[in-house]
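Input (structure):
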């Protein structure tokens, strides 16, 4: 019976319902523990580091339970998890190089442990924009308490002469330096720089007048508290950041920054003296920092890979003390975060940490959210009524997240600049604040849409610029192509002019049958040419050359422009071939004339016509020769325009020589008949 009751479907259904309700309760409890532990850490971190660490442990326990009971809650990777893991691993290995491994290990897992747990708590539990608003409210309330307590210290007095935070000989009038809830004035000043940067980011992107007024007043109060710390480096850093933003983005910010600095200097001359002492060696702290840096560089040179061990600076420094020379003073850090990390965990560990550090800064500055144009508040004049209720209304999420992202980027930049003269991260709460900001920057990058309206506008400008550059490039390419074609044409014409002697084109003559008078002139010219050729063969070489030039008509005019080398070479070859052919033909003609002296005379002149006198015939032949020469020059110029090869000219010369030989024989026959 009992077994049957246990397997009752109704009972099973009720049990499943109870288990589901219990499971949901545990999910809510885990989520609440994680979330409220996170909020408690944010609020308590500047006020009480011990309570903040307890809240952190509660939040981590709730997060672990949430991973166990909530099936929809999964581990989320942030942008710079890899360098963070490398930093943790290399820092752990540096313990092996420490002169006191027990102390270094204890210091390592306590400090690095809270850094990593803070990073995980924020990164895994903040997943909605509304959660950012809650975090900002508590952080602002905590910062307000710190500032108010700083005013209390300044107004009601605190003697810091015995705390060695100031050189009494150099600044005898400086008796007050507030530190509020932090360990010393320099750490408080670094925290106030972070607070001012966060408020400034929200101020820039807030479109509501009432909130802007409140944020402006808050920044002025924080700046006044910062001046009360008399921390020279922190004051210069925040002035450089705000003035730089004003010069690059908005001149009104620059003017406001200059006005605030002038008012503070007028109100407190000691502050002016304190700030200007940075550029001199009046204060011993400046000289001591230079000595610490020299000693730290020597440590890095001796231990470049694993360093001297996590947190072991105070133990190793006496071996590299070049300044204090054994004085009873404990030096716990190098007053420079870059040198301090390289000295304690080595150059590889420092590279991993600053990859994480500067990567976070750049990521935050580059994170954008779309601007909701429809929800922007209408612009109103300064005289409009101040509406208090608008302060409690929810901010536009995009404005809030955009301002928070830029504020985080500027805050990390302030830590980087302050780290040049002081190691703010040696302080545990300051380092926890840094890791919290880094985690928030990673969450904001995940909340940011893939492509914002601002990015679209930028891409539109980019597309227009790209089209303009493309058109400009194509136009330049087309112009270059046309210029190249023109150059090629000129080069080709020059080459052709070298290889061939081009002459101006003559109008083409009509191809007709040669008239009888022109034929007679050709025959007479051929006879005279043959006679001159025969005389050339018998003359001396010099006379033959000059006669040949006259016969061929190749003698260059006196005023003719000198030929190119290639033209001269081609002309010499042509002349040599022509001369050789003429000599061969002349020799052959003379040989044939000797062999046939007694050849039968040709038929006499036709009846009724007297024989021509030799001189008359020669005179007539000269006249015809002149006509033939003119016709030949026209024909030769035409052939040169048509770029006839040298062989073709040689062939024509051979034909003319043969015809001249036949005319010579006719001439001899005529003379014989006479």
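Output (sequence):
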């Amino acid at each position: 019976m009992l077994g049957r009751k246990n397997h009752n479907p109704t009972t099973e259904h009720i049990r499943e319902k109870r288990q589901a309700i219990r499971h949901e309760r545990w999910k809510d409890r885990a989520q609440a523990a994680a979330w409220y532990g996170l909020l408690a850490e944010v609020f308590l971190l500047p006020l009480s580091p011990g309570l903040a660490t307890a809240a952190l442990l509660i939040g981590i326990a709730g997060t672990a339970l949430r991973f166990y009971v909530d099936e929809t809650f999964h581990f989320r990777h942030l942008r710079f998890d890899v360098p963070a893991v490398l930093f943790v691993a290399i820092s752990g290995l540096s313990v092996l190089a420490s002169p006191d491994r027990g102390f270094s290990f204890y210091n390592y897992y306590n400090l690095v442990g809270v850094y990593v747990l803070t990073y995980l708590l924020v990164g895994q539990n903040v997943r909605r924009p509304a959660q950012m608003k809650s975090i900002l409210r508590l952080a602002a309330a905590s910062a307000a308490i710190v500032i108010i307590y700083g005013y209390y210290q300044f107004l009601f007095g605190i003697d810091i002469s015995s705390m060695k935070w100031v050189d009494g000989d150099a600044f005898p009038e400086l008796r007050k330096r507030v530190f509020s809830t932090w360990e010393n004035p320099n750490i408080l000043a670094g925290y106030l720089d972070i607070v001012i940067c966060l408020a400034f980011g929200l101020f820039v992107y807030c479109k509501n007048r009432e909130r802007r007024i409140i944020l402006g007043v808050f920044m002025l109060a924080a700046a006044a508290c910062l001046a009360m710390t008399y921390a020279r480096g922190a004051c210069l850093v925040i002035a450089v950041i705000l003035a730089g933003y004003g010069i690059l983005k908005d001149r009104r910010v620059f003017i406001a920054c200059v006005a605030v600095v002038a008012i503070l200097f007028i109100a407190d001359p000691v502050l002016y003296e304190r700030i200007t002492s940075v550029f001199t060696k009046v204060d011993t702290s400046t000289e001591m920092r230079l000595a610490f840096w020299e000693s730290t560089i020597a440590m890095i040179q001796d231990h470049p890979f694993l360093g001297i061990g996590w947190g072991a600076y105070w133990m190793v420094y006496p071996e590299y003390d070049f300044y204090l020379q054994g004085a009873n003073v404990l030096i716990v850090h190098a007053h420079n975060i870059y040198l301090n990390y390289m000295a304690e965990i080595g150059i590889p560990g420092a590279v991993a940490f600053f990859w994480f550090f500067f990567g976070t800064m750049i990521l935050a500055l580059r994170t954008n959210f779309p601007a909701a144009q429809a929800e922007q508040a209408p612009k109103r004049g300064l005289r409009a009524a101040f509406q208090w209720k608008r302060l409690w209304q929810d901010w536009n999420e995009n404005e809030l997240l955009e301002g928070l992202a830029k504020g985080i980027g500027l805050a990390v930049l302030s830590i980087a600049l302050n780290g040049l003269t002081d190691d703010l991260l040696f302080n545990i709460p300051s380092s926890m604040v840094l890791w919290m900001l880094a985690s928030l920057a990673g969450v904001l990058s995940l909340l940011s849409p893939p492509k914002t309206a601002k990015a679209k506008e930028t891409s539109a400008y980019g597309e227009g610029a790209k089209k303009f550059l493309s058109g400009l490039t194509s136009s330049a390419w087309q112009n270059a192509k046309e210029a190249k074609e023109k150059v090629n044409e000129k080069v080709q014409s020059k080459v052709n002019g070298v290889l061939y002697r081009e002459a101006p084109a003559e109008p083409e003559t009509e191809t007709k049958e040669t008239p009888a008078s022109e034929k007679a002139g050709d025959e007479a010219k051929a006879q005279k040419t043959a006679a001159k050729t025969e005389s050339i063969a018998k003359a001396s070489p010099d006379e033959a050359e000059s006669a040949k030039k006259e016969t061929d008509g190749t003698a260059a005019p006196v005023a003719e422009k000198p030929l190119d080398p290639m033209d001269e070479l081609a002309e010499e070859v042509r002349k040599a071939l022509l001369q050789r052919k003429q000599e061969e033909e002349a020799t052959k003609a003379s040989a044939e004339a000797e062999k046939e002296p007694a050849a039968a005379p040709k038929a006499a002149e036709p009846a009724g016509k007297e024989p021509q006198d030799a001189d008359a015939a020669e005179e007539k032949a000269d006249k015809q020769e002149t006509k033939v020469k003119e016709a030949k020059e026209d024909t030769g110029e035409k052939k040169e325009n048509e770029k006839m090869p040298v062989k073709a000219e040689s062939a024509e010369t051979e034909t003319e020589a043969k015809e001249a030989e036949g005319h010579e024989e006719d001439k001899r026959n005529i003379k014989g008949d006479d």
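Notes: The mean pLDDT is 76. Residues 453-499 form the longest helix (47 residues).
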